[in-house]
Design a protein that fits this description.
Layout: H1 4-27, H2 36-48, E1 52-57, E2 61-67, E3 75-81, H3 108-124, E4 132-138, H4 147-153, E5 164-175, E6 179-181, E7 184-187, E8 191-198, E9 202-203, H5 213-231, E10 238-247, E11 253-254, E12 257-266, H6 269-289, E13 293-300, E14 305-307, H7 309-323, E15 328-330, H8 341-344, E16 349-357, H9 377-393
Parallel strand pairs: 3-4, 3-5, 5-16, 6-15
Antiparallel strand pairs: 1-2, 2-4, 6-16, 7-14, 8-12, 8-13, 9-11, 10-12
Helix pairs in contact: 1-3, 1-9, 3-9, 5-6, 7-9
Length: about 400
Amino acid sequence: MISKHQIKAQVQNFFPELIKIRRELHANPELSFEEVNTAKYISNLLSDWGIEHQTGVGGNGIVGLIEGKNPSSKVIALRADMDALPINEQNQVEYKSANKGIMHACGHDVHMTCLLGTAKILNENRHAFEGSVKLIFQHAEEKVPGGAIQMIEAGVLENPEPSAIFAQHVFPELEAGKAGFRSGKYMASSDEINLYITGSGGHAAMPEKNDDTVLATAQIIVALQRIVSRNSDPQIPSVLSFGQIVTNGTMNVLPEEVSVHGTFRTYDEEWREKAHQQIRETAQYTAKAFGTECEVVIDKGYPFLINNDDLTEQARSAALDYLGEENVVALKPRMTVEDFARYSHIMPACFYRLGTANYNIGITSGLHTPTFNVDEKSIETGTGLMVWIALKQLGI
């Protein structure tokens, strides 16, 4: 039998090494589907610690296995993502990204570090628990189609098959030392909406002789907003936003083509498919009304993320025990997306949040910003909490 006090002491002893690991990962980020050196670094650490693992799973993914007593009695999975974002870091820290234009601005360096720390501590205590723990280091969370589907297709949830899966994600809206949980639907699905409006174009001073693709584009964007504001069920959160318009026209030239790129997000699969059809029809018919044509390309992304009620309550209970009631909060639903959703539609899953902010020293920047950073004390919290959740699942 091992106590939470023993786990906390072990994490604290390993904490200086965890900081080194996090800073090494942060300084050497790699983009989605390019995590070759990141995977090598993780594999080398797992090998040094004597943890059995496979590399190249579904791409750059890594799968490790830690067997306790009676290893087939119960299997759980713990997942961390590996990729970084195409952002140029502005933080002036000694471990600033060495790869220009690439940054761990979503905290995946912290996720990997916490899972590595969890792996080491669980491996050192493998005689204290029943069952097994599968470690999933997943590539390409940030870019559709995502690494989760590739790893699933490669058999990451087989041999042995876990009964549940957990993941944690940094949360700069929450102070370091705290964690947040929410059961049920927590994060939205996501689809990339691409519109290509074409016409003859020509001199802007003679619009009667040309097709005004810019005017058509403007009307299409306005018309599409009614899909959410007038057609969706108010009980189903939905967002349709366009963030990019590209054309080669000038102030006196109507372009032959305008491309528009945006995102559609929601929490209901039936409505998701219906909205796709309405987007296609609205864009095409509106374009036709202005003498143009519109090709609609919808790249279907991740499904909505659903946290299993029972599993999430078990994880929350473990967090209350490990962190104390004052450090465990309830989360609100979000329209952001997460590739972990793939797993949540296959098996019981729990995706929870790790507080990383420190308002006293100015660590408050949001995710996906060039000044994002974390209070590194959160790594101690995240590692210990993940260990404790795993141990509680395996019946210590």
